[in-house]
Amino acid sequence: MAHHNVSRILIDQGSSCDVMYQELFEKLGMKMEDLSSYEGTDLQGFNGSTIRPWGLINLPVTFESKES
């Protein structure tokens, strides 16, 4: 947005997704059996391309030695 005047910014606070690529999926030792089915729509990139996710996975996250 450099060199442009921005008169309006829209913020969506409810839709977020983190995309894990195949290389990381494999490095974490994940298997296809670890995925839950994905019932949503295809993801669309900024260049207009679309891709169908393999599925969903819940990953544990650790902050300051406490699991959440």
UniProtKB/TrEMBL annotation:
Domain of life: Eukaryota
Protein name: Gag-pol polyprotein
Phylogenetic lineage: Eukaryota, Viridiplantae, Streptophyta, Embryophyta, Tracheophyta
